[in-house]
Amino acid sequence: MKIFVARLPGTPVFDPAGDLIGRVRDVVVGLRIGRRPRVHGFVVEVQPRRRVFLPITRVRRIEAGSVVFTGRLNMRRFEQRASETLVIGQMLDLTVRVGDEPMTVYDVGMEELKPSNWEITKVAVYKGRRREPRTVGWGEVSGFDTLQKDQGAAGLIAAFESLRAADMASALHDLPTKRRIEIARALHDDRLADVLEELPPDDQIGILGTLEPERAADVLEEMGPDDAADLLHDLPEEQAAKLLALMEPGEAAPVRRLLTYPETSAGGVMTSEPVILPPTATVAEALAHIRQQDLTPAVACQVYVTRPPTETPTGAYLGVTHFQRLLREPPSTLLGGVLDPSIDPIRPDFTLRQVTYYLANYNLVAAPVVDELGRLVGAVTVDDVLDHMLPEDWRERADDRDDLSRENGREGADDRDD
């Protein structure tokens, strides 16, 4: 049985009872001098965003669209050993030699030679800009053990193309710094912006600092204004000012406004781009707006109604209507007639504690933020509040999840050397 590794990312992993445990993110191998690499196992991402090791000896079968393992799964966070290589993270995009010809690796084939004994047997390569593909045996290739200054990123990006931004961010975070920067530089601005929003602050700052200032400003423009403001808050003042100056004035304006509020206030965590419509808009128009794919569920749950202009800071704030109410009304109904009179807006100077009590008290996932002139300046969503109330390193912390793994009965020995 032969499997090409670049097709595995995102493949669901099931336990013996048929329960979904996580998804494959990479394959761990050990390079051996004069011999084909041996597959040690899979890096599997389990919720919430924790990467663990699944030994190949515990894999019962690999089918189209699924991996099934037997026994227990060690829930300790995966740590790559010095003698190990990640196929997707570190082998794809390498420049190798097939005979005397330089080639670029875009996939690697693993094969089960004996039960639970998998080795890397094939390498898929291409040459030059025409990308003429070839598949050759492992023994025909040299150069995997060479440290390369610029590895490229096309193969890894293609392998992770279908991943959500949060999963891509998790994959980037676990790569060596050099590889992380190579991948980040190769991503399109909009994709990199989405990924940056999901990374810890240290990773954000590190990646942004490796980009040319003009490109860094372009990426900030693609980010949500609230996320861009959070990132600029963490940068040295001089660097933040330089990037703001390089941004398009229309894109920089909402970010500048958000930077005027304290970081731990409603104004500091709100999004300045909620769904806003005039009172003369119809229910059908409102539903069309909240169906936009790029809106998060928390932002799409409410439509804010104001006098023109309908970009923050808006004209006079009139009220809010919820998507459930919109679903119950005839499509031609005007929004001015379906406002919820029970929801009072909050002020930008509300503390995070006050915002939290407000959302909890009224069972809301979002709240309008209105300034002293009665203008809507943004909306605070529950995910904004959680991002700022959790510890700064919450995306990286593993200790808080150990109890859960023990309760699930999946803690076992790390038999990587079986």
Automatic annotation (TrEMBL):
Pfam families reported in the protein's UniProt record: CBS, MgtE_N, SH3_actinomycetes
UniProt entry keywords in alphabetical sequence: CBS domain, Cell projection, Cilium, Flagellum
PROSITE patterns the UniProt entry points to: CBS (PS51371)
GO cellular component: membrane
Keyword set includes Ribosomal protein: no
SUPFAM superfamilies, per database record: CBS-domain pair, MgtE N-terminal domain-like, PRC-barrel domain
Annotated segments matching region Disordered: 396-418
CBS domain mapped to chain residues: 339-396
GO MF: magnesium ion transmembrane transporter activity
Signal peptide: none
Name recorded for this polypeptide: Flagellar motility protein MotE (MotC chaperone)
